[in-house]
Amino acid sequence: MVRPRRLMIGAMLFALAFAQPAAAQTATPADSAPPASSTSPAPATPPSSSPPAVILQQAPAPGAPKPAAPSTSTLASRPTLIPNSGDTSNVDEVVLPEKPVLILSGTSVWDDGLKNLRAAFGTIEAELVRLGIPPAGRPLAVFVQTTDDNFRFDAMVPVGAAPSPVPGLGPEMRFGVTPSGKAYRFVHKGPYDDIDTTYETITTYLDAKDILAKDSFIEEYVNDVADQTDPALEINIFVQPR
User: Fold this and answer.
1) CA gap 22, 138 in Å, rounded
2) Which of 10, 46, 63, 129 is 20 to 30 Å from the Cα of 149, by its Cα?
3) Which residues share a beta bridge with 158?
């Protein structure tokens, strides 16, 4: 199996985050990349020795109904985290606002990444309908851990405010807030299959600017597309410095 290049980026972000003096370093999880040296490339992230206990978002069985995804027209009326549009030719230094969200945590193999993220967003949207809470922003995915085979994510849909008291929610769901603070925004426009090229640009930029990044990254889905080969896809990618 060819190692996904997005995994390489995730490992590099993690390695950059810990490329500090030894005295300041803390122990890293067993399935994370070791600190990168200043003279050698970041080592590959080894596969996790124990697979995730639950794969929440698997490809649907043949003949099974597909979870609904938010429509393009609905998404178009919702605000993005940063009001002004980004440009693929520029890197924007922005400040992410803290927004309340409904979160669904899950795990997906890389090859089914976009499909399973869309399924997760559809599940969140359906839960918001059940609760009578209107969505208030574009769907987000925070990639919290990567291995050679899969990745863990927090899928999020912003809301105006979290209800109080919090009602009963579906499995692996919770209310929370979006990551906030200083970030660098990169824009990917084109098929999801080509997003590795954008992540290569991100890695080059971070390396050139000597930016130590947090070991997670954020994708905001500006529009919804039918499949990962659709050239109309637009995604804002946010990387936060440490």
Assistant:
1) 40
2) 63
3) 101
